C-alpha cells in the first residue's frame, strides 16, 4: 500500500523538478484540454506561469463543453490564440440555465473572439432548441450580425477545417443580409463549377458594397474548410438553393451535412445536382416537416 501511494508522489516530484522551459513547451500538448490545464495550473505557481500566456490567460488547445457558464468563463480566461478545437453543445445544458439573453451575450462574445483564434481548426456550436420558458430559441439580428462578422474574421486565419452550426435558424433574409463592419474582401478564387443561375451566384458570392458581408459570403471565405454541418437549422428549400454556390467556392470541402432541416426531396435532389461531385452530401433522408 505504501509503495502504491508513493509512486504518484514520486512522479509528481519529478514533474515539479522539470525546468519551466520544458513545462512551457511540453505541457500544453500533453494536457491540452481546459480542465486538466486548469487543475495543473492550480497545483503550483511554476505550472501556472508555464501554462499561461503573457496576459495571464491559460494556453488551452481544446474546449468542449455543454455548459453556458463554462463557455463564457472560458472565453474570458483562456488564451484564444492557442485554441485549436472549440465545441459547444447547449442542447445538453440544464433548462433553467437557458436564458435567451444570456445565450445572446455568449454568442456575441464567441463571435467577437473568433478574430483572435488564429489556430482554430474545429468550431462546433449547437444551440438549444428552447429557452427556459420553453419558447423557440432564435438569435436576434444583433447576435446574427456578430456571428457573420466573426466567421468573416475567422476566415482570415485560413486554418478552420470543420464547422458546425446547429439549431441556428438560417432564413434566406438572414443568410443574404449584408452586415457592415467586415474586413476587406479577400482575393476571389475561381469556382470549381459555374453557378447554375445568375440569381444564385449573385445571392451567394461577391463582396457587398462598402465593406459589407453576408453570412453566405462569410462561409465562402473559409477556404480551408473540409466539413460543414448545418443541422436542425430550419433550412427550407429557398435557403437550400443558395448553398451550392458556397460549396463550389470551397475547394477543399469534402462533406456537408444538412440533416434534420425542412428540405423537400425534390429540393434536396436539386441541391445535390448543383453540388460538386467530390463533396459528400448527407441528410437527404433525414429531413423533418414538423413545424413549431
TrEMBL record:
This is F-box domain-containing protein. It comes from Alexandrium monilatum. Gene3D superfamilies: Ribonuclease Inhibitor (3.80.10.10). Residues 176-197 are annotated as: Disordered. InterPro entries: LRR_dom_sf. It comes from the Eukaryota.
Amino acid at each position: 500500500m505504501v509503495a502504491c501511494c508513493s509512486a504518484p508522489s514520486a512522479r509528481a516530484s519529478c514533474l515539479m523538478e522539470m525546468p519551466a522551459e520544458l513545462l512551457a513547451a511540453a505541457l500544453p500538448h500533453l494536457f491540452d484540454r481546459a480542465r486538466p490545464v486548469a487543475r495543473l495550473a492550480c497545483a503550483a505557481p511554476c505550472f501556472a506561469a508555464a501554462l499561461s500566456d503573457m496576459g495571464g490567460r491559460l494556453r488551452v488547445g481544446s474546449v468542449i463543453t455543454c455548459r453556458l457558464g463554462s463557455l463564457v468563463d472560458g472565453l474570458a480566461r483562456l488564451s484564444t490564440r492557442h485554441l485549436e478545437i472549440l465545441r459547444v453543445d447547449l442542447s445538453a445544458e440544464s433548462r433553467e440555465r437557458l436564458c435567451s439573453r444570456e445565450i445572446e451575450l455568449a454568442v456575441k462574445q464567441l463571435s467577437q473572439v473568433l478574430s483572435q483564434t488564429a489556430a482554430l481548426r474545429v468550431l462546433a456550436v449547437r444551440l438549444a432548441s428552447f429557452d427556459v420558458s420553453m419558447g423557440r430559441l432564435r438569435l436576434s439580428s444583433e447576435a446574427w450580425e456578430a456571428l457573420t462578422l466573426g466567421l468573416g474574421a475567422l476566415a482570415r486565419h485560413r486554418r478552420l477545417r470543420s464547422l458546425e452550426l446547429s439549431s441556428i435558424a438560417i432564413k434566406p433574409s438572414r443568410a443574404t443580409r449584408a452586415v457592415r463592419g467586415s474586413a476587406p474582401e479577400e482575393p476571389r478564387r475561381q469556382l470549381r463549377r459555374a453557378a447554375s443561375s445568375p440569381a444564385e451566384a449573385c445571392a451567394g458570392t461577391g463582396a457587398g458594397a462598402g465593406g459589407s458581408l453576408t453570412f453566405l459570403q462569410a462561409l465562402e471565405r473559409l477556404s480551408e474548410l473540409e466539413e460543414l454541418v448545418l443541422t436542425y437549422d430550419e433550412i427550407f428549400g429557398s435557403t437550400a438553393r443558395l448553398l451550392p454556390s458556397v460549396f463550389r467556392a470551397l475547394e477543399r470541402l469534402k462533406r456537408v451535412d444538412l440533416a434534420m432541416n425542412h428540405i423537400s426531396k425534390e429540393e434536396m435532389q436539386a441541391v445535390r445536382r448543383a453540388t460538386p461531385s467530390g463533396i459528400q452530401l448527407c441528410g437527404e433522408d433525414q429531413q423533418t416537416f414538423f413545424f413549431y
